[in-house]
Amino acid sequence: MSARSGRSGKIPVNIQTPISLTREALARLRLKALRRGCWFRDLKREERKLLELTIRVVEKVCSFLLAKLVSRIVDKLCEAMESVVHRLMRTEGRSLAEKISRIGEAWGNMSAASWARDRGFIQFLTVTNLLSFKKV
């Protein structure tokens, strides 16, 4: 069954969308964005209206086109609400951990390969090098 037909019951949305496209989840996201002050700051008027209408009218997004549009807006909101440390962990910290992991492997440490995927290690490197990273 094709994903466009809507018969499979699952709508392929952007992989980064961390929430389901239901009324409750979108309403929670809207409330969270309002509390953090990014609802008006980071969304255009049309994007806010689309999300508000979706929350009012749709129980669960079934349309492929609507899911595509709403997931883009949700991704934009989630990125805007992401903390500075998490953003730096995703960008700078991960690359630093990969670099250190390769150095550890070159020195013969067999467990060094897993360092690049260790969230705690990435967070440690990010926080300890916080001042050396550029302002995001």
How does this model look, in words?
With 136 residues, the protein is an all-alpha fold. It has two domains: 23-81, no CATH class; 85-132, no CATH class. The protein is 61% helix and 0% strand. It has helices at residues 23-36, 38-42, 45-57, 64-81, 84-106, 119-128. Helix 1 (23-36) runs antiparallel to helix 3 (45-57), helix 1 packs parallel to helix 4 (64-81) and helix 5 packs across helix 6 (119-128).
Query: Percent helix among the residues?
Result: 55-70%
In whole angstroms, the N-to-C terminal distance is 43 Å
User: What is the average per-residue confidence, as pLDDT, rounded to a whole number?
Assistant: 84
Shape: elongated
* Proportion in β-strands: under 5%
Rounded Rg: 19 Å
* Contiguous runs where pLDDT drops below 50 for at least 5 residues: 1-15
Count of strand segments: 0
The computed structural class is: mainly alpha
Number of helices: 6
Largest sheet: none
Number of separate structural domains: 2
What string gives the helices and strands in order? HHHHHH
Short descriptors:
136 residues, mainly alpha, 2 domains, 61% helix, disordered N terminus
Write the layout of secondary structure elements.
Elements: H1 23-36, H2 38-42, H3 45-57, H4 64-81, H5 84-106, H6 119-128
Concise overview:
The protein is mainly alpha-helical and 136 residues long. The protein has 6 helices and no strands.
